[in-house]
């Protein structure tokens, strides 16, 4: 049940930040893990992982790993959502 709540909260945060991005005109990108499908959204960041909203992909630490499957940054690809 906790995972479902986390997913719903992450999706809610994603939508909220996407709406903010559209209204502020910032051009944030999204990146998808090719292993598990996890989405990193630059507008939302990952505050629970210590990555604040607005953090560009190139500014995410090189040793960061996917919070879902442990994949490395080079296992992510930019996607349009």
Brief overview, please?
The chain has 81 residues and is of the alpha+beta class. The chain contains one helix and three strands, in the order αβββ.
Could you describe the 3D structure shown?
By secondary structure, this protein is α+β, with helices and mostly antiparallel strands. The protein has a single domain (about 1-80), classed as Rubrerythrin, domain 2. Helix content is about 30%, strand content about 15%. The chain is built from 1 helix and 3 strands. A 3-stranded antiparallel sheet has the order 2-1-3, with no helix packed on it. A hairpin with a 5-residue loop joins strand 1 (about 30-35) and strand 2 (about 40). The radius of gyration is 12 Å and the shape is globular. The N and C termini lie far apart (about 25 Å). The model is unreliable at about 20-25 (pLDDT under 50).
How are the secondary structure elements laid out?
Elements: H1 2-24, E1 30-33, E2 39-41, E3 76-79
Antiparallel strand pairs: 1-2, 1-3
Mean of pLDDT: 83
Beta-strand portion reads: 5-15%
Number of domains: 1
CATH class: Mainly Beta
Low-confidence residue ranges: 19-24
**Any idea what the shape is?**
globular
Q: Kindly report the spatial arrangement of strands forming the biggest sheet.
A: 2-1-3
What is the count of β-strands?
3
Radius of gyration: 12 Å
Task: For this entry, give a set of tags.
Rubrerythrin, domain 2; 3 strands
